[in-house]
Amino acid sequence: MDWKKKLTSRKFWVALAGLVVGVIALLGIKTDTSQITGVIMALGSVVAYIVGEGLVDAAATGTKS
User: Fold this and answer.
1) How many alpha carbons lie under 13 Å from residue 41 in its C-beta half-sphere?
2) What is the residue extent of each domain of the chain?
3) Is the pTM of this model over 0.70?
4) Cβ contacts of 22 within 8 Å, gap of 6 or more
5) Do residues 49 and 16 make contact, with C-beta atoms less than 8 angstroms apart?
6) How far is CA 61 from CA 22, 26, 45, 47, in A?
7) Is residue 45 a contact partner of residue 3, using CB atoms and an 8 Å limit?
8) What is the DSSP secondary structure assignment for residue 8, as one 8-state letter?
9) Tens digit of pLDDT for each residue in 8-37?
10) pLDDT of residue 35
11) DSSP string covering 16-59, please?
């Protein structure tokens, strides 16, 4: 496993940021519907970004994901 490549990956940092935002929002003092919706939307956008970048990477290498 190439750790340098993984640590410089945008997908890794976006996923990590999404996880941190989700955990921070979930551990807030009050948990209401809007807070839970925000967490879901934040994590959904992270997943969409990662899938999109994966498709771009796969197209660049000429393989299917």
Assistant:
1) 6
2) 29-60
3) no
4) 39, 42, 43
5) no
6) 32, 38, 24, 21
7) no
8) T
9) 777 778 777 877 777 777 776 566 777 777
10) 74
11) HHHHHHHHHHHTSS---HHHHHHHHHHHHHHHHHHHHHHHHHHH
